Amino acid sequence: MEKGQTGRCTTAQTMPRKKHYEVTLITPDSLEAKRKRIIRCLTPKCGLRYSVKDYTVLYDNKKLMYFDARSILVKSKAIICHDCLFKRILALTGTEIARVLIVNPDDGTGKICKFYPNGDKKWLDEDE
């Protein structure tokens, strides 16, 4: 692994490098429609899990977000937390800046977010 890279992904578990990736935000409204009781991160070392009620409180207070990352992980179910998403994206892109389209299923809008490798200070120069 080169200097500046973080995360440990095997190529069998991930998609090939792309110019940008797309993930879908899992909102409390999208969970209620599926009648799930517990939502959890499917990354084996993480396993972060909350009830839908608790996730709603954390989501509304901007403390936690889960994502459907099927476009990044080769799995039929790929729910991961925001921390694991960050690590996965950096593992895929290495020292490159990654562009990720995050889609909100409630209103169909999307926002492109940039993920910077550890130690990269370029984000300090960018306007929001």
Structure characterization notes:
This protein has one domain (20-119). A hairpin with an 8-residue loop joins strand 2 (38-40) and strand 3. The model is unreliable at 1-16 (pLDDT under 50). The protein is α+β, with helices and mostly antiparallel strands. It has helices at 28-34, 52-60, 82-93, and strands at residues 20-26, 38-40, 49-51, 66-68, 79-81, 98-103, 110-115. Strands 5-4-1-6-7 form a 5-stranded mixed β-sheet. Strands 2-3 form a two-stranded antiparallel ribbon. It contains 3 helices and 7 strands; from the N terminus they run βαββαββαββ. 22% of the residues lie in helices and 24% in strands.
Output mean pLDDT. Answer: 77
- Tell me how many strands there are: 7
Give the quaternary arrangement of the chains.
single chain
Beta-strand portion reads 15-25%
How are the strands of the largest sheet arranged?
A: 5-4-1-6-7
Helix segment tally? 3
How helical, in percent, are the residues?
10-25%
